[in-house]
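Write out the 3D structure for:
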Amino acid sequence: APIRAAEHTLGLIHLYSGNPENPLDRGDLDFCLAVAGQMAVALRNLQQRETLAKGLARARSANDLLRSQLPGAGGLVGQTPSMVNLREQIALIAETDAIVLIRGESGCGKELIARSIHDRSSRRDGPFVCLNCAALNESLLESELFGHEKGAFTGASDRRIGRFEQADGGTLFLDEVGEMSGSIQAKFLRILEGHPFERIGGRRPVQVNVRVLAATNRDLEAAVADGSFRSDLYFRLQVAEITAPPLRDRKADIPLLAAEFLQRCVLKTGRRITGFTDEALLRLQEHVWKGNVRELQNTIERTVILCRNEIIREVDLQLSPLARRHPPETPPASDSPAAFSSGDAWQQQSLADVELTHILKTLEHTGGNKSRAAQILGIERSTLDRRLKRLNE
């Protein structure tokens, strides 16, 4: 009995009788046809759901792209040598289908770099799918990446495709890739090597055609040395590498960025603000932007919301109290790594010990407030939790 949906044959049901004394009759055929009809409906619905899921991912990607092209969307703005060099690197890398590792501090625009590579590549008409690996715990991250079958775990009431399948034919951007657990790193590596994967709870191999762009603000070399990041995955990700310059290295671009963010905020809020005074722009250039371009964008948005003038003055700027115009030149605390006067004492602390000491001192400074400590350290709250867990093991 054929399993048919519309004019397409999806499969066949073969029913045999192994007993010559009990041959199949018309009733068996009718039963087989009825089962085939039900299976056709179920398979067709499953195909349509997967098609809709992929279409939704592409629609979201296109919507994000259109929003990024609006005036003031804060793309790769800048004329400093570091930005000119960055755009040249992007143009060269985009022509290939190579894996790219994007390095840089938090808030430097690593996702914008990834999107720019995608938009200039042969995959530009495919989906651009993003996932922050530090924002989810291990089990949720595995489900988000690879998908799961119905009943694979408690709460898995439906089959769900993962980000790799959503990005099929396009680009998958994985931020904070250095925060993956060892088991997920192993599965990720196999996909990068061209092997199929299985959804959680599934047995059918899934093959995808995806370009992977990965980003991190973590010292992967140190992570490889301490065993928290696989060396084979590290070398696999290093096919091509781009570094996003921090804002302190491109301060001449701050007026351009500020104007871009101002235009975006004005369109969103409807405020009648036309620009900045020279003093305000100078103050923005002198500020210590620990959160880089993201902090500058948030500052401009906060300023636009609270400003009552048509021109933003220096006094109107809503700068974060966490940074200062000039870093204070005070002697280091007696228990900080820089305070050691003896070379031997410095060598006795491993990199992990120094990192743990700095994190604990920051938590002490914030009274145990992890969210504020993460903001000071320039990382996500979930990343702080992961590092504390890893350093305390």
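The CA atoms of residues 373 and 389 lie 15 Å apart.
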